[in-house]
Amino acid sequence: MNLNIKDTFNTELPADPVHENTRRQVTQACFSYVKPKSTANPSLIHASKELALDLGLTEDDLKSEEFKSIFSGNSVLSGTNPYAMCYGGHQFGNWAGQLGDGRAINLFEVNQNNKQWALQLKGAGETPYSRTADGLAVLRSSIREYLCSEAMYHLGVPTTRALSIALTGDQVLRDVLYNGNPEYEKGAVVCRVAPSFIRFGNFEIFSAKQDKKTLKTLADYTIRHFFPHVKEGTKEGYLHFFREVTHNTLEMIIHWQRVGFVHGVMNTDNMSILGLTIDYGPYGWLEGYEEGWTPNTTDRQYKRYRYGNQINIGLWNLYQLANALFPLIEEAKPLEDILMEYRNNYPTKYLSMMKSKIGLFNTDKNDAELLNRLEENLQLTETDMTIFFRNLNRISKDNLSNEDYLAPVMDAFYVQEEVKGDILEKWMQWFADYQNRLQKESIGDSQRAEKMNNINPKYVLRNYMAQLAIDDADKGDYSLLDEFFQLLKNPYQEQTSAEKWFVKRPEWARHKVGCSMLSCSS
């Protein structure tokens, strides 16, 4: 392999002086040196050729023993110094102190075509930040992360990516539902890729420890490499930086809402400073449109991270980042003003996004009310989000009889017999008002349908699809994993051979583990 290694994080930031891989509190350091754990019998399951080429790798590299060895954690690329990051975080609203990369080990950084990429292994063994855990990952969660990272990228959602997934040959003990019944599962390692894996929590830990010097060093490093248009080392620069992070975070969450993605565990240590979707744990996709849905069993009672609350949690998390950056600014009002921008911009951006989903591109004073009623109607009876919005483009501007209103979206209803009486009446009224609104659009049906198809995906990684790929992979069959990987490269395109995946969640998957509720266990 001939990679253009250009490390910055572990060359420009302070390192933990202790080199022993023991659990401990780390102070005045942004990372600790640590090497991946050797595995019993590694084997490569899948790799992204497209991303490999972006990194300067060839197809031959992907087939090599060297690639398998490095990206399963069995060897370290010559001249590189792997490490685990130190960070803290608020988990479910409470300060959790030091967290850090408990099962992620950063291998090196690559500069290719003037783009900087950090590569890290998830599941490659314990680090000083593993606390009581083993630092390993299992095939189940690794497949979910691998597929979803690339699916989100092709959906146009800001995200970290995934280069490869390998089996370790080791068995890993996990309690899937935290119910006291652990079982052994196949161990696996994913290589994650992003410009940087810096999180809100990287800043929080130094602010919490009143280590202003390291906080400033980290902020200046982040600005220098990832916000080069911002002036580092000044109060104005730190405010400019915070405004950029706030803007990027809002953009990311608007995209989540657009495609029906629920992160599941929006702790501040899972929030990327670059506004990327990071840490694919107990995530899920909305099947039926439900604002109160969360995929995370840990969050079942309070539903803090439910679909309809993600935008508010984004703001809450940004407040914690503002608190962390305060020592560099020492003035609250300008930070509060930026947070208010987020609060004020959200309704406008959300309205614009939702209007585009239903093909409204001109301005009308009643659009917000029309969309509010739509979101209420979608929850009257279980209605598949992806199918409903994708098929809505079939509604014509031309006059339709009442019986024709629901025909284009009827497939989206899980129990079609429930669409009667009051529910039917509300839908009929909404479609009548929607069609009247379409009359005010300047573009024709075909052009509007084309624009809607570029906003509303036909294919997403439905929860049951991921589980099917996991079940097959557990038996040594990776064909479905590859089928989904290829399918999700073109989520907005009609793919006639894949129509079987443009369907509602099957009934058997409604309450099946891995298809409806998930835990953080991986």
Description:
Among the domains are: 159 residues, no CATH class; 94 residues, no CATH class. The strands form 4 sheets. Strands 2, 6, 7, 8, 9 and 10 form a 6-stranded antiparallel sheet that branches. By secondary structure, it is α+β, with helices and mostly antiparallel strands. The mean pLDDT is 95. Nucleotidyltransferase involved in the post-translational modification of proteins. It can catalyze the addition of adenosine monophosphate (AMP) or uridine monophosphate (UMP) to a protein, resulting in modifications known as AMPylation and UMPylation. It comes from Arenibacter palladensis.
Q: Any low-confidence stretches, pLDDT <50, length ≥5?
A: none
Count of DSSP H/I helices: 16
**SSE order, one letter for each helix or strand:** HEEHHHEEEEEEHEEHHHEEHHHHHHHH
**Gap between N and C termini, in Å?**
30 Å
Protein name: Protein nucleotidyltransferase YdiU
Pfam families: SelO
InterPro entries: SelO
Cofactor: Mg(2+); Mn(2+)
Give the topology.
Layout: H1 9-12, E1 31-33, E2 43-47, H2 49-55, H3 59-62, H4 65-70, E3 83-85, E4 88-91, E5 94-98, E6 104-112, E7 115-122, E8 137-138, H5 139-155, E9 161-174, E10 183-194, H6 200-208, H7 212-226, H8 235-259, E11 261-262, E12 284-285, H9 310-329, H10 332-357, H11 367-377, H12 385-391, H13 421-438, H14 445-453, H15 463-474, H16 479-487
Antiparallel strand pairs: 1-3, 2-9, 4-5, 6-7, 7-10, 8-10, 9-10, 11-12
Helix pairs in contact: 5-15, 6-7, 6-9, 8-9, 8-10, 9-10, 11-13, 15-16
